[in-house]
Amino acid sequence: MPRLLYSLVLYLLLPFIPLRLLWRARKQPEYLSHWGERFGFYRAAAPQPLIWIHAVSVGETHAAAPLIDALLARYPTHRILLTCMTPTGRAAGRQLYGERVTQAYLPYDYPGAVRRFLTHFQPAFGLLMETELWPNLIAACKQRGVPLALINARLSDKSARGYARIGSLTREALKNLPLICAQTAADAERLKQLGATHVSITGNLKFDVAPPADVDDQAKHLRALWGNDRRALLAASTREGEEALLLDALIPESNYLLVIVPRHPQRFDDVATLLTARGIPYQRRSENAPIRAETRVVLGDSMGEMFAYYGAADVALIGGSLLPFGGQNLIEACAMGVPVILGPHTYNFTQATKDAFAAGAALQVVDASAALVQAQRLLEDALMKKQMGKAALEFAAAHRGAVGKTMATIEERLKIVSHELTRIPTNKTK
Asked: What is the pLDDT of residue 425?
């Protein structure tokens, strides 16, 4: 009954979906493409056999990288199907994996749409990244005998309270999952309280994401453009409203370069407008030109260079933490040995944040003004900056290993799947 009511609500919302897509296409025209896939209609033939991974957007797509590599190595006769929900997630998948994976949009959670999706692709098994609970999709997988696991699962207190408001629906979805791989003990406990029954703790896959092989060269190139003698503060993955706070708090007499990289590419022009309105001299990364002496801000309007940005920066301020967005990924910064500053809102990375603080790799501040003051201090204190950078590297290294634990848990729990996969002959691959 709860899922029936849920589906009814979805059908009532159906007329508004095209309007929402058109609205979002104002800033991202890519939302006008592949509409059929969002309702379970796919043109291209599906290669077989398939292992399916769902990564909703950019962050999850990047986090899936080491697991995808492990799956391709373990099951070389198989093709990976990578689904997402956003154009930026799809673009990230194309940039990261090229032709190594098949990409498509996961359809909206309508019963008919998810049936068409499963009929078309016929995955051997599916892996949902982080907190993707789609009741009809999960029920359809169970009905068709498609093993489905929730991996790298995280659930903040805030999200848990939201799911608890639809307790019956959440409980049914969680009980229909034969395996949940949680990031931390706290995540596992919150999932169990909501009704999950098959929960293992396997760690955070984001610790296993490796920088590109040429990241040092990329970072040196960026640093040369910025000026090797000029200190750089990176505001990484900033969210709407945070850039304005930082620009308003920018100290006039400061001589460091502020590098702002918005989380979402559709906001690059919005941030440029903020800079112009305030009369702050800036340059875009896309110009690929040396930074002039009078330039105070670099607008990082590029995709796929975040590791290089961290490698070129002296200090990193992690976006999404100055306003209540829950914080973005601090692990990449630590993996590059960069001291980290975080705002007060870090519920998306609660355990990682606590561990980074304990390791001496990160500092927390109350607002944008305090962030810039703390950054100035770090930029001027070479010893403290070096110590924090070393602690960041050690912190990132100490928490690796989630891919191996996740792979082992998947194969142990989904024994039938593992047995069937190893029996499928190579000549069935299209």
From this structure: 39
